[in-house]
Amino acid sequence: MGKPAMRELEVIRSTPVTEHMLRVTLGGENIGSIPEGQESAYIKLVFPRGEGERPMMRTYTIRHHRSTEIDVDFALHDHAGPASAWAVSAQPGDRITIGGPGPKKLINMEADWFLLAGDMTALPAISVNLAELPAQARGHAVIEVTSEADIQTLEHPAGIELHWVINAQPDPSGQPLLDKIASLPSLEGQVSVWAACEFGSMRALRAHLKQVHEIPKSHFYVSSYWKIGQSEDGHKLAKQQDAEAEGA
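Above: the chain sequence. Below: its structure as tokens.
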């Protein structure tokens, strides 16, 4: 796989979405080089470090893509990382280098019913997936947010029931998200699963779903977007080790 294309974009505006979610809109003269229709694709935000050091990269989802702009939503925490700290201070005219976009990760639409799940880091991708589902889709979407003020109005088929889990403190055991999913009734037929959340929560959720449902790999996307107490590099290593253990 080749290196992602790099381009410099300009901050157009910042818009609060909810109490702990901030949307930064990027555009500028290089926006036209991004292929059309990249909602849910990932990009790498590039943060330079000292001379001779490799820059830091942080991965985010394109929430909306218009001809002259993209929206990137940032989940805000008490202990801000480099990306969320940058987002909070970003002003119109600021510039940032991005890599990508990388491939989209959309739920498999060929199913009888659907289960989507994740925390606030996955909320942009879940939002795109919900909007892409066919009008007759049935199932559940379970979303863990920091507070009731973080509940959003999301476009979704009438047959998809939204469940909001309020959890102010991320739990490495993943119980709040898992407990809600375990309490939901299964529907008849083949389920298609899309889930992304904290690393420990992901592992607990993956184990539960494999135990409860027979799901082919083509209909099973469960990933982690971050790990409590780890940088993105530390999280990436943990994911690699977990993937090797799962494949053994």
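Residues 232-247 form the longest helix (16 residues).
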